[in-house]
Amino acid sequence: MSTSGLIRGSGLAALLGGALWVVVFAIYALRASGPGAEPPYRSFEGLGVPGRLSLLLIAFGFMGLDWPTWRGEGYGRLGRGLGRGLWRVGFGLALLGIFVIVGSGPSGTVGIIGVVVLMVASLLVGAAALITSLLPRWGAIVLIVGSLTFFLFDTETARAWCAVPYGVAWIALGYLQWAGRGVELQGPTRAR
């Protein structure tokens, strides 16, 4: 499969992962909460498998954003310097955060640390994409806003809806990758 085919495939995975993320957190936010509410008292009961699947699909989206560097095809407009550093650190932390959450679950100390790591990593990737114009400006901004909004997430108030914009961001990024409007490839250069 060609590099562009893999990027498009990862874009479709990211789009589906983002959509599944939105559904999972919308169901979570709509569940009853508060004193006297019947179970499930705003729990992830029954949402663990779809939640983990959404994260794995988003991980494929992250890999599609970074695929050209794996193939030795360069960073395109990413170039050197601050943008490249933010990109590499953000990409590595994002995958670490995702696999910590998938392995341990979103609740508990380890899972919460994984969520924070994922959101910080998403901010770094969004900032790198904004600095380098790797993605269209609106695509980078939507990832930054979705990540920042998630920091307002609260399990027992209307702020449970603050998780939804992160999924919307991955729907947008997945579309950009799938439509071929994301990562630009730079062919190998020859020394003269």
Secondary structure layout plus pairing:
Blueprint: H1 3-30, H2 48-70, H3 82-104, H4 108-132, H5 137-150, H6 164-178
Helix pairs in contact: 1-2, 1-6, 2-3, 2-6, 3-4, 4-5, 5-6
> Unreliable segments (pLDDT under 50, ≥5 consecutive)?
71-75, 184-192
User: From the alpha-carbon coordinates, what is the Rg to the nearest angstrom?
Assistant: 17 Å
Roughly how many Å apart are the termini?
A: 31 Å
In DSSP terms, counting alpha (H) and pi (I) runs of 4 or more, how many helices? 6
E-strand count: 0
DSSP strand content: under 5%
For the report, how would you describe the main beta sheet? none
Name the helix and strand elements from N-terminus to C-terminus, one letter apiece.
HHHHHH
In brief, what are we looking at here?
Helix content is 67%, strand content 0%. By secondary structure, it is mainly alpha-helical.
